[in-house]
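FW: tagging you since you asked about this chain on Friday. Here's the raw sequence from the shared folder, copied in full. Didn't touch anything.
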Amino acid sequence: MSGGTPLEAYKKFREALKNGNKEKALQFIFLSEREEYRKDFKDQEMINNYLDMPSAEELKKESEFECSRQALACKKKMEFYYEYEVEGERQEYDMGNGITGVKEPGTYKHSIIFIKNLAGKWQISSL
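HL: got it, structure written out here
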């Protein structure tokens, strides 16, 4: 499955996830990325994170470009973004493998990348 537009694919992905249909949600993910998201879907907290992302109407288009010749299954890429605020005190947290992450107060930008596949349909490459 895929969408006629990037935002349609995003809406359908979130709708399927909201309805608990993980396999249908995975159909809106670009094939090469599905296994990674399948792993994420085993964790309810990760699912909640995806559902907490903004609606399609809140996303802003960043860029659009043709895929390079090396990309075998990609006709076009499009990047959208949203901004979010982190409030409160600076926090450090354990990211695993001895890596410490830092959460600083401020405004942040997060990108979502879509790929138009060879069938001419849009799918999510990266959330």
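FW: The chain has a mean pLDDT of 90.
HL: agreed, and The radius of gyration is 16 Å.
FW: great, closing this out.
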